[in-house]
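It is worth pausing here to work through a concrete case rather than discussing structure prediction in the abstract. The textbook approach is simple: state the sequence, then state the predicted structure, then interpret. We follow exactly that order.
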Amino acid sequence: MTVLMFIAGLAALVVGAELLVRGASKLAFSFGISPLVVGLTIVAFGTSAPEVAVSVGAVLDGNTEIAIGNVLGSNIFNVLFILGVSALIVPLVVNVQLIRQEVPIMIGASLLLLALALDGGLSLFDGALLFGLLVFYTVFLVVQSRRETKAAKAEYAAEFEPAAPGGWDAKLPAQLLLIIGGLVFLVLGSEWLVNASVLFAQALGVSDLIIGLTIVAAGTSMPEVATSITAAIKGERDIAVGNVVGSNTFNILGCLGLSGIVAGTLGLDLTMPQAALNFDIWVMLAVALACLPVFLSGREIARWEGGVFVLYYVAYVVYLIMASQQHAALAMFSSVMLWFVLPLTVLTLLIVLARSLKADKARI
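Step two, the predicted structure:
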């Protein structure tokens, strides 16, 4: 029954996110909102709705470790696994705006989360600060969209088409019904997924944090998986990258912001587990920082770079499993990763980046 509850919860989250994104995007287009704003806000937020539902639901149930682990794990999963697999399908072109603006914002949000969590958790004020920054960021995108080029508008319009005249979803009641139905599925799905995850953790003898970092994080990232891989296959390669970067920023500012507000309203602090503070939050920050040299090297994510991302995600999950079981080979595995694999990867990326920048300079 636990497995069935988990699968049903995951399915409800995916269906709910799809209904919410469809209804909200159609509604936005009906009111003439810019396609760029729809792509970077409504659609990006919609694909992150499962993370919000699960994290807030976990706080309400008193499972704060799942709320924290879900966001940290989702951000790590989004970059290493989703971008990695998408790049293996086809090399991903990286838009200049992502390099100059969106990735630095994602890194800034990660650094802010680290600073706020150093005292052991997120207070009501911390949650309000994060959510306030999300509101500011959204308003900034709306203002910026007024200077949007026709090419960018056409690209997003092609990806998220408005409702066809006369279509069943062209009318306001249908669009509102889609949004309400999506929210209902998200609430139900989050409840089932959290409950099943807690039972999994108890049965396997691992912490709620580990379950949140792995199973729940991967499960709630299914909308991002579908969006990015589909975009890569269709040739909308910069959308595949933008979806991940935008979702990561929203996960920190929106998911943890709302979770912190809910916890604070209940008179609680959103406690950051010591294990996450010692390791996982640093991995999330390192993954965010790694995007810059990878994205700058030829302004694309090559297949070999995608393969490296996927292998690092596998190594991360293996480490979590070995650490939870206190495996005898954990020390050797950690030493190999820390003193051989990581330095070799950094050196390779620096060489590739230097060659790319030198080639760009020569062309100028």
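Step three, interpretation. DSSP finds 14 helices and four strands in the chain. The longest strand covers residues 92-93.
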